[in-house]
């Protein structure tokens, strides 16, 4: 085979030669060919069989070869159809580009999308490093520029700033370049001030709870339904009737809403409460005393007691007036009605009726001004807002505490049976048969009148004429002219309300009955001034007078008129108080206790059970000397007495325990009811009286 | 006992008026009261045979509406003594023989 190989090789080289001459473009590697030619020329020239036989001259002929840059493969005549000219046209120029070699690289232009994405990825990685070194650098752009200029002045600081500035810049936009200065990179850290922590805890009040219990049974359910059914039936009936009433109510509401447009009235109740609160706070210690204080020293002093002064009620307008009457309100135990006038004949001015409450000692609850001095006052037991009053000028009037008109509701006139002399006492009676209220009045003109309040007016009726049958002035012809006595006080029997006592100026006490108009049942020669029945005992009454004495009497059972009205009887007890006695009152809780007040400002409390001759308590009550005490009243429920004086002051005092001794119950005994208590009181008094009756001579004090 | 209940049932039948809901005691405010009452009526009518489910429904609905912990007892004969939050108690009769007590106490 080797000769064939040689052949092929030489053939190849000859081919190459020939091609070199002919198609010069195809050959790129001339170097190899020439080397081979030189090497091959050492051997004999071998002619291939199909070689052209050319003559010498033809062989020396020079052929011009032009090398152009044209792409030999590019077609020279591209014909395209031109729609515009509607014919085939030859394209003038043909693309001569020939791609010899193409290699896809992985270089990207830095502004291209892909590059930017790459930058972003790279940038994020770098910013994470720069974060801890971040400082507060607002002007990122300026820093960038300064950094970009390439001259970091100030060294590390700026570099750090740049970094910090750039870091937020990249964060913010994410598209800006990150020019991390690698040389002056420094971390910057800062700690803001953290507010200190504080624990706060609170406990809320849990919602209020209540217990509830019941039993569920079939019959209970049934009963409930039955009840409801009945109620429904009733309400159906009632619906017809209340139609009218509701209209009235709505009318009333209308009126009320109109009147309350005045601002003050709306605040009224609130103001009142606040006033009372303030008073309570101011007089707090007194209030505490009133409620709780008991004089401990009473344990040591058996037969003595004290009166602890509590509130003192004084009113500006009443300062010149004397307290003429005091009356506790039967319903509201802290309300006391006080009348002010003047006892002095010469000085007669205006009068006042004041309602004080213990809850507010600084200002009266309510007051009425009158043109004439008010001499007496009484509060109706059933209708506690009705107050009847008697005046110095002889008239009587009725006031209503509820209906705060400026004046009286009713007032009698001269035609209407007004007394001609001052009215000294008024007393309410039980409502009569027609349910009209009525009251009695007594005055110096010797008449005891019954006043009835009909719908809109007062009607009077003379009950008794106080005449003095014995001492009758002898007229010129010897005709007996009955002179009228002057009644100064009267009181009704607690149980038998047709019986009443009358005290007169002449010094006699008459026992009268409503039935008899001119005759008395009995007369006692006593002194004048106040008269008051004993609360418990049906036959004992007490009187006091300006003759310095207080006397206790008994009413005899057998009324023998024939024995005469002027049979002098001796009182059971008689007490001398060293000064004219203004008023006397029995205690409501005990049948043997009573209090008296004198003109020298002293108050006396006696307990017949404890000491028959001497007072348990003798105490100076008035503030200034020369103040006469004019009236005293016990409070029905609280252990308090109220004393009025002639300066317009009302003082309240608390009775110490010794003064309020009631009969002690035996231990283990069942609780006592009212009737038994009354009985016991009566028995207690009876005991004392029995002793006295047997020895009447010893009774004088 | 059975005879008595039978009599009552007869009575209930004859007087159909007694099946309306009747509030025996309540200290809820009015809107809560009406809502609770209607809910009880609905529950009892829906679960007339199963008191437990009725009570369950009442209790769940009240919990959702008025919060925290409600308790409901539905039955015909029982006695109870409970402590309830003030203004969250309803005790009513329904259907002539059913008594429902509903109270809140967390």
UniProtKB/TrEMBL annotation, chain A:
Segments of skewed composition (Polar residues): 180-195
Record key words, sorted: Cell projection, Cytoplasm, Cytoskeleton, Dynein, Microtubule, Motor protein, Repeat, WD repeat
Keyword Hydrolase: no
Compartments, record wording: Cytoplasm, Cytoskeleton, Cilium axoneme
Family: Belongs to the dynein intermediate chain family.
Biased segments, Low complexity type: 133-145
Pfam families per UniProt: WD40
A biological-process GO annotation: regionalization
Biased composition (Acidic residues): 25-38
Ranges where the record places region Disordered: 1-39, 118-215, 232-257
Ranges that cross the membrane: none
Compositionally biased region (Gly residues): 148-158
Major localization class: cytoplasm
Gene Ontology terms, MF aspect: dynein heavy chain binding; dynein light chain binding
Stretches of the chain forming a coiled coil according to its record: none
GO cellular component, one term: outer dynein arm
InterPro entries per the UniProt record, alphabetical: Dynein_IC (IPR050687), WD40/YVTN_repeat-like_dom_sf (IPR015943), WD40_repeat_dom_sf (IPR036322), WD40_rpt (IPR001680)
Record field: compositional bias (Basic and acidic residues): 232-250
Name assigned to this protein: Dynein intermediate chain 1, axonemal
The keyword rRNA processing appears for this protein: no
From TrEMBL, chain B:
Database matches in Gene3D superfamilies: Protein Inhibitor Of Neuronal Nitric Oxide Synthase (3.30.740.10)
Entry-linked CDD domains: DLC-like_DNAL4
Gene Ontology process terms (BP): microtubule-based process
UniProtKB keywords: Cell projection, Cilium, Cytoplasm, Cytoskeleton, Dynein, Microtubule, Motor protein
GO cellular component, one term: dynein complex
Cellular location(s): Cytoplasm, Cytoskeleton, Cilium axoneme
Main location: cytoplasm
Subunit structure comment from the entry: Consists of at least two heavy chains and a number of intermediate and light chains.
Biological role: Force generating protein of respiratory cilia. Produces force towards the minus ends of microtubules. Dynein has ATPase activity.
PANTHER family: DYNEIN AXONEMAL LIGHT CHAIN 4 (PTHR11886:SF2), DYNEIN LIGHT CHAIN (PTHR11886)
Family the entry assigns: Belongs to the dynein light chain family.
Protein name from the UniProt record: Dynein light chain
Organism: Plakobranchus ocellatus
Lineage summary: Eukaryota, Metazoa, Spiralia, Lophotrochozoa, Mollusca
């Amino acid at each position: 085979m080797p000769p064939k190989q040689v052949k092929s090789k030489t053939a190849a080289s000859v081919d190459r030669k020939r091609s070199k001459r002919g198609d010069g473009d195809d050959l790129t590697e001339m170097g190899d060919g020439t080397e081979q030619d030189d090497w091959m020329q050492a051997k004999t020239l071998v002619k291939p069989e199909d070689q052209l036989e050319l003559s010498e001259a033809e062989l020396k002929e020079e052929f011009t070869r032009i090398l152009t840059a044209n792409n030999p493969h590019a077609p020279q005549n591209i014909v395209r159809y031109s729609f515009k000219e509607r014919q085939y046209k030859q394209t003038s120029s043909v693309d001569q580009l020939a791609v010899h070699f193409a290699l896809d690289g992985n270089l990207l232009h830095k502004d291209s999308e892909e590059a930017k994405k790459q930058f972003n990825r790279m940038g994020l990685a770098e910013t994470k490093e720069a974060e801890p070194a971040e400082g507060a650098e607002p002007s990122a752009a300026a820093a960038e520029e300064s950094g970009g200029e390439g001259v970091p002045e100030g060294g590390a600081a700026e570099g750090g700033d740049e970094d910090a500035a750039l870091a937020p810049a990249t964060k913010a936009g994410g598209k800006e370049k990150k020019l991390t200065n690698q040389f002056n990179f420094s971390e910057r850290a800062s700690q803001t001030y953290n507010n200190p922590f504080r624990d706060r805890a609170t406990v809320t009040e849990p919602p209020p709870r209540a217990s509830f219990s019941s039993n569920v049974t079939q019959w209970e359910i049934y009963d409930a339904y039955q009840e409801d059914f009945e109620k429904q039936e009733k309400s159906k009936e009632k619906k017809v009737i209340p139609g009218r009433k509701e209209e009235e109510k709505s009318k009333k509401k209308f009126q009320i809403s109109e009147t309350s447009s005045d601002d003050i009235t709306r605040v009224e109740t609130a103001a009142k409460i606040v006033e009372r609160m303030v008073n309570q706070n101011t007089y707090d210690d007194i209030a505490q005393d009133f409620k709780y204080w008991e004089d401990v020293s009473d344990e040591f002093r058996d037969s003595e007691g004290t009166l602890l002064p509590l509130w003192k009620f004084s009113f500006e307008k009443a300062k010149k007036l004397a307290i003429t009457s005091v009356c506790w309100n039967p319903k509201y135990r802290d309300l006391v009605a006080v009348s002010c006038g003047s006892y002095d004949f010469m000085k007669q001015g205006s009068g006042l009726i004041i309602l004080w409450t213990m809850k507010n000692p600084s200002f009266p609850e309510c007051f009425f001004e009158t043109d004439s001095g008010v001499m007496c006052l009484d509060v109706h037991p059933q209708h506690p807002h009705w107050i009847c009053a008697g005046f110095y000028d002889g008239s009587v009037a009725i006031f209503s505490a509820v209906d705060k008109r400026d004046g009286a509701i009713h007032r009698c006139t001269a035609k209407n049976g007004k007394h001609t002399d001052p009215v000294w006492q008024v007393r309410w009676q039980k409502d009569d048969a027609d349910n009209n209220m009525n009251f009695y009045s007594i005055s110096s003109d010797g008449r005891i009148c019954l006043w009835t309040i009909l719908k809109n007016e007062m009607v009077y009726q003379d009950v008794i004429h106080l005449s003095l049958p014995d001492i009758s002035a002898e007229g010129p012809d010897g005709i007996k002219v009955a002179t009228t006595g002057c009644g100064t006080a009267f009181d009704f029997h607690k149980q038998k309300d047709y019986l009443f006592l009358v005290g007169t100026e002449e010094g006699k006490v008459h026992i009268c009955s409503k039935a008899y108009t001119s005759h008395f049942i009995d007369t006692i020669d006593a002194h004048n001034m106040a008269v008051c029945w004993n609360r418990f005992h049906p036959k004992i009454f007490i009187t006091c007078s300006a003759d310095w004495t207080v006397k206790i009497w008994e009413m005899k059972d057998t009324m023998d008129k024939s024995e005469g009205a002027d049979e002098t009887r001796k009182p059971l007890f008689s007490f001398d108080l060293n000064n004219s006695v203004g008023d006397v009152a029995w205690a409501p809780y005990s049948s043997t206790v009573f209090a008296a007040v004198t003109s020298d400002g002293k108050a006396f409390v006696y307990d017949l059970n404890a000491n028959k001759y001497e007072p348990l308590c003798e105490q100076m009550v008035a503030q200034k000397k020369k103040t006469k005490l004019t009236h005293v009243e016990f409070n029905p429920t609280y252990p308090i007495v109220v004393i009025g004086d002639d300066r317009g002051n009302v003082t309240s005092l608390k009775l110490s325990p010794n003064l309020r001794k009631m009969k002690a119950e035996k231990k283990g005994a069942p609780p006592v009811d009212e009737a038994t208590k009354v009985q016991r009181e009566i028995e207690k008094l009876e005991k004392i009286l029995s002793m006295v009756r047997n020895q009447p001579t010893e009774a004088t004090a | 006992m059975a005879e008595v209940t039978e009599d009552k049932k007869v009575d209930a039948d004859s007087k159909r008026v007694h099946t309306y809901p009747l509030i025996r005691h309540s200290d809820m405010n009015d809107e809560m009261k009406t809502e609770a009452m209607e809910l009880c009526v609905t529950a009892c009518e829906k679960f007339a045979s199963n008191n437990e489910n009725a009570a369950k429904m009442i209790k769940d609905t009240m919990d959702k509406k008025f919060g925290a912990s409600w308790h409901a007892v539905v039955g015909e004969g029982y006695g109870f003594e409970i402590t309830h939050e003030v203004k969250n108690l309803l005790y009513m009769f329904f259907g002539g023989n059913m008594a429902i007590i509903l109270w809140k106490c967390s």
